[in-house]
Design brief:
With about 120 residues, the chain is an all-alpha fold. The protein contains 3 helices and no strands. Helix 1 runs antiparallel to helix 2 and helix 1 packs parallel to helix 3. The radius of gyration is 23 Å and the shape is rod-shaped.
């Protein structure tokens, strides 16, 4: 019988991989739903709890190390994806901020030209 912590780590790793695949396929990665981010956060927390439950059985050692290694690789890829997503969101925020400033300038010029008549 497999240790529950190993099963949790494998399931979480699979969820990470699935989430990253959906992110790669998204037309606009910045459109990821807040619910999706909350779910991802809960998965990270659950995996952290599973890591604290390291199996003590002698036979689980090799499987544990293999599972933790695969999980670590997925977590590193997830970290890179989230950094990239964060950069994309900051760029988008700057673009929107610039668009708002431009819109305000146009509105001010429009009001000024109406007052000149």
């Amino acid at each position: 019988m497999r240790h529950p912590a190993i099963e949790v780590l494998e399931a979480t790793r699979n969820e990470y991989e699935s989430w990253m695949a959906r992110l790669d396929k998204a037309a606009d990665p910045a459109a990821i739903s807040p619910e999706s981010i909350r779910k991802l956060s809960a998965m990270v927390q659950k995996a952290g709890e599973a890591l604290e439950q390291r199996p003590q059985e002698n036979g689980a050692g090799e499987e544990w190390h293999t599972t933790v290694g695969a999980y670590s690789e997925s977590l590193a890829r997830l970290h890179k994806k989230l950094e990239h997503l964060g950069i994309s969101l900051r760029v988008r925020r700057m673009q929107l901020s610039g668009a708002r400033v431009h819109q305000q300038a146009v509105r001010s010029w429009a009001e000024l030209t109406q007052n000149l008549r």
